[in-house]
Specification:
Blueprint lengths: L3 H17 L1 H6 L4 H12 L14 H19 L4 H5 L3 H25 L5 H10 L9 H5 L5 H31 L5 H35 L5 H21 L4 H15 L5 H26 L2 H22 L1 H10 L7 H9 L5 H17 L4 H35 L17 H4 L8
Length: about 425
């Protein structure tokens, strides 16, 4: 990184400005990723050429991994298992039926459009682009005009699919780098061991920390500031300890947050906001680095040659590849067609795809493989999603709410379920709907 001190200073000034004007940007439907992607373009090779980074850098990889782990922990800590189980049908279908179909359909599309790429490669791209990011469709998750049942289903999906997809990303990346055939039985056993270790580590650390900190706070053994720092260290401990023993760090962070919330009886939500805030600040830097790395001369040169296919893949990934599996998964639920279409459309690709893309790119560079196809497809899909989902969210919510008001039968959508808390820091600049 060249002139790193100057770049970092400008980044921090921009972060202070953006967060200080959060409500104003929110009224204009300008999200945090939009702003920091522009910052990455400005600092990167295409313009100022002062932010020159490599995805194979250990610092960049660690930044991306820790950011996602911290946000997964904070997000999971708000989820109440009992309250989720009261209406598990819709999120269960999204995660258990739609998500695998999205990866399969994305892989088929990739092979049709890029027949020169190996099967493992196109499945890797599909897995990277499978998880969703609530931050890019703010009004869908927070606007009271949206039925609670639909909002909570999409919210639970967004929180859980990162960890579910992670083993598939690791599998397909390994297949692509080694060019070896992986036997299903071997992979299943390895994946189960990795997930089992992650669940055990996350559950043990989360439970112990939740019980201990709940007791410490109630008996005034600690202060509010130190309890906030303690929760941050717990989130990081889940990740590092799991990785150290061969487990999945992202799954451990999510399970750790989930169990921590249950063990602390959700009485430490305010203290957990510090870990969330730290992760959100780090995510701003990840978006900047993402743009500086991916919107580069090499990637743009490849896009000029094969851009038509990459653009088509990105557009289909955000529409057919997501919407068709969601529609199939909702058969038999009794949901209206416009509800199913809305749920299918709002599968924004965001931070998880960026983090997985950076990790895959780093692996490709270390192995001496071409990164341009993956980098171009992921970049275009995420960029399209940032603006398409960010700008369409509020107008589509208004349109959908109007249709529900005029409809005679909306019992399924308006079924009474309990509202789930939403981490506002994960949502974008502001959780408040525009005035």
């Amino acid at each position: 990184m060249q002139d790193s001190e100057l770049v970092f200073a400008f980044f921090l000034i921009l972060a202070a400005l953006v967060t200080g004007l959060a409500r104003i940007f929110g009224r204009w439907y300008i999200s945090m990723p939009m702003i920091f992607v522009f910052a990455g373009i400005l600092f990167g090779p295409q313009v100022a050429d002062i932010l020159v980074v490599s995805p194979s850098s250990e610092n960049i990889q660690l930044l991306a991994e820790l950011t996602l782990a911290m946000l997964l922990f904070a997000d999971a800590s708000t989820l109440n298992v009992r309250r989720i189980s009261e209406d598990i049908s819709l999120p269960g279908r999204l995660l258990g039926i739609a998500l695998p179909l999205i990866i399969i359909l994305g892989g088929i599309l990739g092979k049709l459009l890029f027949p020169e790429l190996p099967v493992g490669y196109v499945l890797l791209v599909a897995a990277i682009l499978a998880p969703t990011d609530a931050a890019l469709g703010l009004p869908i998750y927070t606007n009271p005009l949206m039925p609670v049942r639909i909002r909570r289903a999409l919210n639970i999906e967004s929180g859980l699919n990162d960890g579910i997809v992670s083993p598939f990303v690791i599998l397909f990346l390994g297949v692509t780098l080694t060019e070896e055939t992986v036997f299903l039985g071997d992979w299943v056993s390895d994946a189960l061991i990795e997930l089992g270790l992650a669940v055990l580590i996350g559950a043990a650390v989360g439970y112990a920390a939740g019980v201990f900190l709940k007791t410490a706070v109630s008996r005034k053994w600690t202060t509010e500031m130190w309890s906030k720092l303690s929760i941050l260290t717990v989130a990081l401990a889940c990740f590092f300890l799991s990785v150290a023993v061969g487990g999945n760090g992202f799954v451990a962070a999510f399970i750790g947050g989930l169990v921590f919330g249950q063990a602390s009886s959700h009485k430490l939500a305010e203290q957990t906001e510090f870990a969330e805030g730290a992760g959100t600040l780090m995510s701003m830097l990840v978006w900047t680095v993402f743009a500086a790395i991916y919107i580069s001369p090499a990637v743009l040169d490849w896009a000029m040659t094969y851009g038509g296919r990459a653009i088509l893949y990105a557009l289909l990934s955000l529409t057919v590849v997501r919407m068709l599996p969601v529609a199939l998964s909702m058969i038999g639920t009794g949901l209206r067609l416009d509800t199913v279409l809305l749920m299918g459309w709002f599968g924004p690709r965001g931070l998880a795809s960026v983090v997985f893309g950076l990790l895959a790119t780093a692996g490709f560079q270390e192995a001496g493989l071409s990164v341009e196809p993956l980098a171009t497809i992921v970049t275009l899909t995420v960029l399209f999603s940032i603006f398409a989902h960010g700008l369409s969210a509020q107008p589509l919510v208004n349109w959908y709410a109007g249709r529900l008001d005029r409809a005679e039968e909306v019992e399924v959508e308006l079924a009474e379920v309990e509202e789930l808390p939403i981490r506002t820091g994960l949502m974008g600049l502001t959780s408040q709907p525009p005035d």
